[in-house]
Amino acid sequence: MKKKYGSVQIFFHWAVFILIVVAYAAMELKGFATRGGSLRAQLLTIHYTAGVSVLLLMLFRMVVKGFSTAPDIVPEPPQWQLFFAKLIHVILYIMFIGLPLLGVLSLYFGGKEWTFVSYVMPISDAPNGRLQLVLKNLHELIANTGYFIIGLHALAALFHHYVVRDNTLIRMLPGREKIPLENSGQNK
Ligand code: HEM
Ligand code: HEM
User: Fold this and answer.
1) How far apart are CA 98 and CA 180, in angstroms?
2) What pTM, to 2 d.p., does this model score?
3) CA-wise closest residue to 99 among 47, 42, 141, 156
4) What Cα–Cα distance (Å) separates residue 106 from each residue in 4, 145, 176?
5) Domain boundaries in the chain?
């Protein structure tokens, strides 16, 4: 049984983490930029680009997950902890696919031109202000809930690492698996 997640899963876990930080940070910083200014527009483009990238990478991660098995945690935590960890993972997938999707749809029905990287994205021929507002409000609600879910997920990982002292976090960190001394050839 492998001791760590595959390198592709580890790479994309942390890539998505960085993109999510960028998406949140762009929105937080937007509050300090003057309305109608170019900095505000740039922060919005960064937000959209990071957000759409999260959507694409989360879909890719879901496919990769379908073809892999999670490495065992040693020592094995109680069943209820494994259950809640899995539940939070499912919630994270639903949230970080649904959240950017709602953002994209709100811009689609808003009818205002926007870009992903530098590609001009399609918008509706018949903008619908009410639908756009509903989608935007839902997007903002899920985004703000996201802080707590990510916080819970990260705290659980740190708790396992520093308090329980099992390998939960190590399994998701880059770097080679440690080879036990008896198998490394150093004791020959
Ligand atoms: C990981 C992905 C994303 C995260 C974490 C995220 C997070 C956020 C946050 C925190 C806000 C502000 C909420 C508030 O003011 O209460 C926001 C607003 C918004 N987001 Fe996102 N978002 C993501 C993806 C996207 C995507 C892909 C789009 C569209 C392409 C998008 C479009 C918007 C829009 C239009 C607003 C409202 C902006 C405004 O009122 O000026 N978001 N998002
Ligand atoms: C400081 C932040 C974070 C830490 C310390 C962290 C840590 C971890 C650890 C240790 C695991 C393996 C847990 C296990 O197998 O039971 C894991 C898995 C996972 N994490 Fe995070 N994580 C963080 C942020 C995020 C964020 C922002 C997301 C949002 C998408 C996320 C989504 C997931 C998912 C979906 C899994 C399940 C494995 C997979 O499908 O790739 N994590 N994380």
Assistant:
1) 42
2) 0.93
3) 141
4) 39, 18, 43
5) 7-171
- Contact at 8 Å (CB) between 160 and 99? no
Q: How far is the CA of 181 from the centre of ligand 2 (A)?
A: 29
* One-letter amino acid for residue 14 of the chain: W
Mean pLDDT of the 12-31 span: 98
| Of residues 112, 110, 104, the one with CA closest to residue 130 | 110
pLDDT band at 177; cut points 50, 70, 90 = low
CA of 77, nearest ligand number = 2
Distance, CA of 59 to CA of 156 (rounded, Å): 24
Q: DSSP H helical segments within 67-128, as ranges?
A: 79-110
Residue 66 above 60 pLDDT? Answer: yes
Q: Which atom of ligand 2 is nearest to the CA of 70?
A: 15
d(CA 162, CA 122) in angstroms, rounded, equals 47
Distance 110 CA to ligand 2 centre (A): 33
